[in-house]
């Protein structure tokens, strides 16, 4: 590896929390050569019992170090400690989910003997790894995102080369070290950290890569996809500008705490954070005021403290950008209900805006900060039309007690998932998780990722002993 190292800083106080070696073009070539060599030598593929044993041991090791791993993740990424502990617990469950898939998914029987052509034949499929997996990850869930990209690859016996976000590489290295300690042979999971985007591009576009996994911004993800070698499959997970519809009959006592959490959790730095809240005009002002009270009550500060509800944004430039978007919205006519100010240490106050202009950034683009925009509507069809007006489609939500309202929103919203009486942030890691249009490509979620990282290989067997 390069002799140059990258200092990893806490986004809250700037303290150095670790160092990681920077990767050169030669390092990328070595990593790809090792991974491809393993894949091309089928004698090195790991048997299912061996993979299960490694993953079980890794889950046990993570469980025994859960608080330390979560504290590291909170220190480098800024997610509050109580939520980082939950993230590590999700990672453990994701590893166990990979084991469940290995135990239950084994291919399919293809019907034969249906006509003269298929007579005297049986056919079935089994799964094989697609090839080397190249993964590029994001900062906002520094442990669990790496679990989602690396562990399914190991589970299907695909060597993986992973580039974590430069802000949060320590959690990635921790997971890879634990996998090695659990018995994963050298070369199966390698971390690289080039600081030159051109070097990252060479990793992604290399023809030795069978599958590319990307979590991050749409502009970067779609650009990298355009560089893939022929035959390389990919999954892209980008952001959204998640819409929530509150009907006039919504149970606000139930809905508003969920919406507040969906908008301000991890300072809004999640791809399906609540952002645009379309409320029936009869309740819009009440919703905004009560969300503002929730925002003001949240404890913002040091992410390593268990009492903290909202931590910092990842960098000062993001604080400045979010602040500018909020200021522009207010200048354009929005009413500032709560927040609207930087708090120091890269923290920004949870912010509620009422009726910003439809062409404002907070209504058109992903804020990726602790800002929600409440917008009054008169007719449900109007709210759905506004929700669908952007080129993003990920998770959406509706709060209502009326079955027809819920079904109309489910059918008419441009979304890959519609939550009823739950916020857009909801996710369990075995469900399909996929952005559409500008929001992504392919399907995430542990079982779905494992499927995308494999090829289904068929055997057709002709025998005169086979009867119809």
Automatic annotation (TrEMBL):
Q: Does the keyword Magnesium apply?
A: no
**Organism, scientific name:** Pseudomonas azerbaijanoccidentalis
Q: Which intervals hold domain Aldehyde dehydrogenase?
A: 4-457
Q: Supply the Pfam families for this chain.
A: Aldedh (PF00171)
Q: What is this protein called?
A: Aldehyde dehydrogenase family protein
Q: What keywords tag this UniProt record?
A: Oxidoreductase
Could you say which protein family the record assigns here?
A: Belongs to the aldehyde dehydrogenase family.
Q: Where are the coiled-coil regions?
A: none
């Amino acid at each position: 590896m390069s002799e140059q190292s990258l200092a990893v800083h806490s986004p809250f106080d700037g303290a150095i929390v670790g160092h990681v070696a920077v990767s050169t073009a030669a390092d990328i070539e070595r990593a790809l050569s090792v991974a491809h060599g393993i894949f091309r030598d089928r004698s090195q593929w790991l048997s299912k019992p061996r993979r299960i044993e490694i993953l079980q041991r890794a889950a046990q090791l993570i469980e025994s170090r859960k608080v330390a791993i979560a504290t590291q993740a909170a220190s480098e990424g800024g997610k509050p400690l109580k939520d980082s502990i939950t993230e590590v617990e999700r990672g453990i469950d994701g590893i166990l989910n990979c084991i469940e898939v290995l135990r239950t998914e084994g291919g399919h029987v293809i019907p034969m003997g249906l006509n003269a052509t298929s007579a005297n034949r049986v056919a079935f499929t089994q799964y094989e790894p697609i090839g080397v997996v190249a993964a590029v990850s994001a900062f906002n869930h520094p442990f669990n995102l790496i679990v989602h990209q690396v562990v399914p690859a190991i589970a299907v016996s695909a060597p993986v080369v992973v580039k974590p976000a430069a802000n949060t590489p320590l959690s990635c290295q921790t997971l890879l070290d634990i996998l090695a300690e659990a018995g994963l042979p050298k070369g199966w999971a390698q971390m690289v950290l080039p600081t030159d985007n051109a070097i990252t591009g060479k990793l992604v576009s290399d023809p030795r890569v069978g599958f590319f996994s990307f979590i991050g911004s749409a502009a970067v993800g779609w650009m990298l996809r355009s560089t893939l070698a022929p035959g390389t499959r990919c999954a892209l997970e980008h952001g959204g500008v998640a819409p929530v519809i509150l009907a006039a009959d919504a149970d606000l006592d139930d809905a508003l705490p969920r919406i507040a959490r969906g908008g301000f959790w991890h300072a809004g730095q999640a791809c399906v954070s609540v952002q645009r809240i379309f409320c029936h005009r009869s309740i819009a002002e009440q919703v905004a005021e009560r969300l503002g009270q929730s925002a003001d009550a949240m404890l913002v500060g040091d992410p390593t403290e268990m009492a903290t509800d909202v931590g910092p944004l990842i960098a000062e430039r993001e604080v400045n950008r979010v602040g500018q978007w909020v200021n522009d919205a207010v200048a354009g006519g929005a009413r500032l209900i709560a927040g609207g100010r930087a708090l120091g240490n890269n923290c920004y106050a949870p912010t509620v805006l009422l009726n910003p202009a439809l062409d404002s950034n907070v209504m058109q683009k992903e804020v990726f900060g602790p800002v929600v925009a409440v917008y009054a509507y008169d007719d449900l069809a109007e709210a759905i039309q506004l929700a669908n007006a952007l080129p993003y489609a990920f998770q959406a939500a509706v709060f209502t007690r009326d079955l027809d309202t819920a079904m109309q929103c489910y059918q008419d919203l441009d979304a890959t998932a519609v939550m009823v009486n739950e916020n857009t942030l909801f996710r369990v890691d075995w469900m399909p998780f996929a952005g559409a249009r500008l929001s992504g490509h392919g399907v995430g979620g542990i079982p779905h990722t494992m499927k995308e990282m494999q090829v289904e290989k068929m055997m057709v067997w002709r025998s005169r002993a086979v009867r119809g």
